[in-house]
């Protein structure tokens, strides 16, 4: 359990670092843009909200930095992330709360699918090294180099504008009221297919190549030769001996590259106007809505941390070595 | 090139390769993937230099031909304002390359300083520096870059490169640390330490030369990251929309509904350029990977040669390309 304890401490430190970065960025900038926003919305912002924004963005220059920091933490613990100006006068926390489930559903699901399918294909082409399967490598390389959002643009052009198969934007049919009936859920699925497919298509290559290279390395290990010499079935050697060991770096890689993947998928939401947190970030950037930007960054980082903790738990389950000590 | 394939046990080949180490210094450039990658990269580097002079039009000048598909006058068509897309693409190459490489260089220097010191010093220094680089790895880079550049006034190429470098050094630092850690205990390092060589000499002359391949590979990886980040930033409109780069073209295409109007020529070429450049960098990195790890060699054309000899490249063997 020492492994998990160490990781947990690391995540606590990372969360603290992210929150502290979030605290210092607006304070390091010259001239505070939120001042201008507040001036523009003068009279419409409640005193409470002004106080929150003052704490979040350090508008009160007379306070010591330490006092600001303490107040900042108090504010975060009460779940107050300030006021969004794009969705005026909705609080940032509410906007994030509404959009987060969409992102978790779309990005979470498609990342997991992409990881599993990619790892499986990587296992196969790593095993069949030196045959036609190697022909997949250049294709995978190409797809791993394409920016996610551009693939999204192409997908929209092909599937929704030319073939008119799938809707190009939004999370569900705008005429529907969100509730849990079949029409609504069907519409959500219909709108989710295209962005999900594009995310899978653009992120799968990385997993494939990574797993393939690990498989190639692992298959030259002695224990694989021994398994072969024992006359075990191909299938058993492939999954039980080779893939089982090759997948470990893949999972620690999953945890570390999650940040990159999430960045890519956020832009994907922007292309598809998907009502997730990436699209909210896009709207915040376009409208120069700083409280919303900061809040979104914080929530994305914390979600990635939670995903990392899950990946670590899976790693502990798969690798007995992490469980031995302590 | 007369490359022949011989399948041998790894220990035999390492001895053979070591004997001819001098002639094999540039063996990396004999790798087909690496050559392709370097060629494509070279092509874009030349465009970055001469793009300005060979561009047929001024990228900002409005023309009478609006939303024209590719034609003899405008090879890649025009925008809704009659600007020539080919010219935008040619001139935008420089911005892409400058930011990519500037950010790559800064980030690699950061990665070397932090990664090598962490690996060489060990102990508390290592713990702290590794924790810092892991933190930067875990925090999603793009949102961080967005909130920093979004609040910066201006946002020119220099600033963007700096911000990308500051958020993108962690991966290289992690790899370099791991490798330094393993080098530190090698005999030749121990020997120079016993000789009383200064720490800078040990790091500069004993360790760094042995890290060259990894440094180059992490540099290439960072350049890819920087290019993609910069283009994404331009595409969502965080950075200056008047400085031309491929992302700016996509930004204008998106904000003018190029998709809905069916103007494929507006966004397809820019994306293809990004993909080609990214692919060239990835290919160079594969070349380096295969150079470092012989087990990964022998793919593509080698597979055919092996089958002809009736060899199934699978378990227990490390096929190595050997030149006769």
State the largest interface: A-B, 69 and 69 residues
Enumerate how many helices of chain B there are, as a single number: 12
**What is the share of helical residues of chain B?**
55-70%
Please provide the ordered H/E string of secondary-structure elements of chain A. HHHHHHHHHHHHH
Shape of chain A: globular
Instruction: Tell me the fraction of residues in β-strands of chain A, as a range.
Output: under 5%
General description of the model:
The complex is a heterodimer of chains A (326) and B (324). Chain A is mainly α and 326 residues long. Chain A has a single domain, classed as Orthogonal Bundle (MetI-like fold). Chain A contains 13 helices and no strands. Chain A has helices at 2-28, 33-40, 47-57, 65-77, 92-127, 136-145, 148-162, 182-219, 222-229, 234-272, 277-286, 290-318, 321-324. The model of chain A has no long low-confidence stretch (mean pLDDT 82). A two-stranded antiparallel sheet of chain B has the order 1-2. Chain B has three domains: 1-30; 32-292, MetI-like fold (Orthogonal Bundle); 293-324, no CATH class. In chain B, helix 3 runs antiparallel to helix 4 and helix 4 runs antiparallel to helix 7 (170-184). In chain B, 46% of the residues are buried. Chain B has helices at 10-19, 32-54, 85-121, 123-138, 141-151, 157-168, 170-184, 187-194, 199-236, 246-255, 264-292, 301-308; strands at 3-8, 318-323. The longest helix of chain B has 38 residues, at 199-236. Chain B is mostly helical and 324 residues long. Classes of the chains: A mainly alpha (326), B mainly alpha (324). The interface between A and B is large, with 69 and 69 residues.
